[in-house]
Amino acid sequence: MQTLKRRPAATGPRRKKRQRPKISRKRLLVAAAAAFLLVMLGRSLLPALGIQTPSLGEGDAEPTQVQTKAPPAPTIDLNGVMVQGGGAAMITLNPGLVRLGGTVTVQGSGFDQGSMVDVYLGPSSAPQQPGQARPPSGAAAAKPKQVATAKAGKWGVFTANFTFPNTMTTPVQEVTAQARGGDKVAKADAAVAQGAGQATLSAVVGKPGDTITLTAKGFAPGEQLNVFWGRINGDPNLTLKADEGGSVGKTPIRVGVTAVGTTSLVVVGKTSGAAASAPFQVLRLYPSIKLAPYAVKATQKITFSGGGFAPGERVLVRLNAAGGQPVMAVQTDDAGTFKGAGIVMPFQLKGAQSLVFTGEQSRASVSSGFTILPFTPQARTNAYGGLPGTVVNFYATQFAPNEAVHVTVKTAKGAKPELVAAFRVDAKGAARAVGQYTVPGNTEDTVVFELHGQRSDATATVNFKVDKSGGPVDIPSAKPFVVPKDLEN
Fold first, then answer.
1. Sheet hosting strand 338-344, strand order edge to edge
2. Global pTM?
3. How many CB atoms are located within 10 Å of the residue 277 CB?
4. Which among 150, 203, 219, 387 could disulfide-bond with 160, CB atoms 3.0 to 4.6 Å apart, if both were Cys?
5. Considering only 121-130, 150-159, 225-234, 268-277, which range has the smallest mean pLDDT?
6. 400 and 478 fall within a common domain
């Protein structure tokens, strides 16, 4: 059996070693759980007691809502206006007229060096127009949200940036810069630009009438959107309706009529007043005209068809001029074309003529020439010649339809023409065995008849050979011929 050896006793005094207590793993877990419960308890109870926890800055998933402080009241009378004294905190915004989704830069001064400054965005607390009531206060008032945090540097200056929300609908928002744990606070108003919408087109080049698609957003839900080409007033080129999100998506529209060159499509919300624009390059229109026939006589109809004009516009038709009173107007279809139009030519026109076609809205213009042909009537008598006393009547063709024809006669060279008969041709310009003239007894050689159309101004000539009678012929002189009223033209 072994015996235990005992250590010899120390001969001198011995110092005891200090040992640190060991922390077990169990105690670490308990401490971590207690810390977590304290943090959660603080976050849940402190806001309920009216105590706001500090924001973590713009990295928070959802900015903390707080009740911001108000700057100190003005204390100095300057030219009748109460203003802040020197050393007061101040901020400026760039830009001050902001667009939804745009970046706003806040520049501050007058804060304590090294202090943390929180930036908040909320409804303006000041009336925007004379007589306008202030927004509600207390629990009913919307609280501002933290949008940025910055540290004041030397001389108490800081710069912070934040993105203006896309969903803001009130016209003016208040930006507040507030020092943490201090009394430095400053405010400035940011006005929301009327024109915060966005518009994009599927094409940036085209001519009036081309179909493209429009996408727009940033308007009030369900409001009417007026669409203009190259302008922002008057009657819109078309109207659309925004959906519940204030947008329209890939909607087919036609390029409207506007000046050739660089222009803009403008979309204006009827309720919100918000506007958006998109650049567009408008190409020229190249209209064309086809006439049929290219040569006509008076009373005949010339027909024309056209294309290349703006859809749905009136085309003004003028004769031999680009301005002045149009002689007629024709309407184009959805493709900017028309056909089947025509106009009857009057008797007064002679020779080469031009029709000028001008789009009433587009001002696109084109001309086409044509010719007015003269009438070339032919006439003959019932006989080629005869003795004095012969009764002559007339046959005629190719006069103007339904016009009156006056007959004059020359019985000797150099004699003045004498009106001796009148008749009216039919719808084909012809007449048969009409008029009556008795060759006088003293007539010798040749009698010349001229048949003159009173509308066409065309003349047909007939030579009548008078044979020698061999002696005097006793034929009573004819009474002067008077044209009946119904044969004056």
1. 288-292, 301-307, 338-344
2. 0.59
3. 17
4. 150
5. 121-130
6. yes
